[in-house]
Amino acid sequence: MISINLLPVREWKKREAVRRQVSIFILSFILLLVGLLAVGFTIQGKVSAQKKELKQLEARKARLAYVDKKINQAKKKSKEIETKFKAIEKLQQGRTSTVKILDEVVTCLPIDRLWLKNLDLQGSVLKLSGIALDNHTVALFMQRLDASPLTKKVKLINTRRQKIQGHDLMQFDLTVELAQ
């Protein structure tokens, strides 16, 4: 059977054009939807991967927090031990310096002419008091102390005559600045 198109050609072309445009629109819409779904799935995959990585990093952070705490405790103990060692070194130095100072004072004493009654070491100042046969002996003692490498300055505070068991002796007080 032969079919005859009774519609005018223009209308037929218009319908065909409309049908093509509608099909192109529908196909474009479907392609757009497929593209958006693909992008959405890709982004969702990346987000889930990032969440998984974040959980792993948080778990690692929790494990390392313990190690970090131990390191901080070790640093604290190290600082405490270091301060204790410094204090011990300072005490050792003070102990030996006191012995050196006493040795230097004894070395500077004029034998059987001067006797010390009192020695007082306060920081870097040494206070001495004693008895000598005369002023010349006190001056000799001061000169010897002044020449010592351990002293900076020797200062006579006072001298006074004092009778002890019938002898006229000189009682004296000195301050000595120590070199440190």
Could you characterize the architecture of this molecule?
The chain is α+β, with helices and mostly antiparallel strands. The chain has a domain at about 90-180: Gyrase A, domain 2 (2-Layer Sandwich), CATH 3.30.1360. Helix content is about 65%, strand content about 25%. The chain is rod-shaped and about 170 Å long. The model has no long low-confidence stretch (mean pLDDT about 90).
Summarize the structure.
By secondary structure, this protein is of the alpha+beta class. It has two helices and four strands, in the order αββαββ. The chain has helices at residues 9-108, 135-147; strands at 114-122, 125-132, 151-164, 167-178.
How is the secondary structure organized here?
Elements: H1 9-108, E1 114-122, E2 125-132, H2 135-147, E3 151-164, E4 167-178
Antiparallel strand pairs: 1-2, 2-4, 3-4
- In CATH, the homologous superfamily of the domain at 89-178 goes by the name General secretion pathway protein M, EpsM
Number of helices: 2
Shape: rod-shaped
Radius of gyration: 52 Å
Based on the structure, what is the oligomeric state of the protein chains?
single chain
Which regions are unreliable across 5 or more consecutive residues at pLDDT < 50?
A: none
CATH topology of the domain at 89-178: Gyrase A, domain 2
Q: Strand portion, in percent?
A: 15-25%
Query: What structural class is derived from the secondary structure elements?
Result: alpha+beta
C-alpha termini separation: 130 Å
The major sheet is characterized as: 4 strands, antiparallel
Mean pLDDT: 89
